[in-house]
Amino acid sequence: MRTLYVMPAECPPSWRADKNIGGGLVKKIIILLLLLLLLANSFISIAATDKKQYLWKIGYNRGELIKQPNGPFEVMIFDHDAQGCYMGVVYYKIKDNGPVDATWKFSNCFWQEESWCADINSFAWSIDGEYLYVGTSEIYGNGRLFELDLYNKKARPIFPEEKDLKSWEEREYLMTEIKDINIQKNTIIVEVKTGKETIQKEIKML
């Protein structure tokens, strides 16, 4: 009796080549996706770190000097417990940067005004380093959000607007707090409480 051996048919050379090419391409795609995922996680981590540098809320570093992450200024916090937190702005790098016209001098490196310095609850540095946004409460302070032009020593309330205040004349209180900052969009999320309602608004920083 004859034994019949059947040899396995070999794949055509072209098919084997295509299979190897396809497998290599899949590996490259997987590696690329992993690299993109790692990169995205690093950006998220950086953004979270930057938030802590640009945004301050009551309870963080109370009684300390908070340096600007991208400029020559720092905020000095005065914590008076039940009477609230107060603040002032210091131009601490005047020796390196020099005086600024008539606003900042070697003999005048501290800036504080009653309208925006009293009963603060939060503040945020602008991304370009030229402005400071301050949230206040109405118990001992103004209750509105202020925009401080740091180099020119100019301050103005920007939220809520005057028309809003007139409609809230029967409010229980007024407190405006910076809740969050979006570095990529250059915006801050601001929350206003009146005792009767709560309003949030996204504000574009200069």
Structure description:
- By secondary structure, the chain is α+β, with helices and mostly antiparallel strands.
- It has one domain: Lipocalin, CATH 2.40.128.
- It contains 4 helices and 12 strands, in the order αββββαβαββββαβββ.
- The strands form 3 sheets. A 5-stranded antiparallel β-sheet has the order 1-6-7-8-9. A 4-stranded antiparallel β-sheet has the order 2-3-4-5, with no helix packed on it.
- Strand 7 and strand 8 form a beta hairpin.
- The protein is globular and about 70 Å long.
Task: Detail the topology: elements first, then pairings.
Blueprint: H1 13-54, E1 55-57, E2 65-67, E3 73-79, E4 85-91, H2 94-97, E5 110-111, H3 114-117, E6 120-125, E7 131-136, E8 145-149, E9 154-159, H4 162-167, E10 175-182, E11 187-193, E12 198-204
Kindly state the percentage of residues in helix.
25-40%
- Number-wise, the strands total 12
> Looking across the biggest beta sheet, what order are the strands in?
1-6-7-8-9
Structural class by secondary-structure content: alpha+beta
CATH class: Mainly Beta
Number of domains: 1
Taking all Cα atoms into account, the compactness measure Rg is 29 Å
Average pLDDT number: 82
CATH architecture: Beta Barrel
Largest sheet: 5 strands, antiparallel
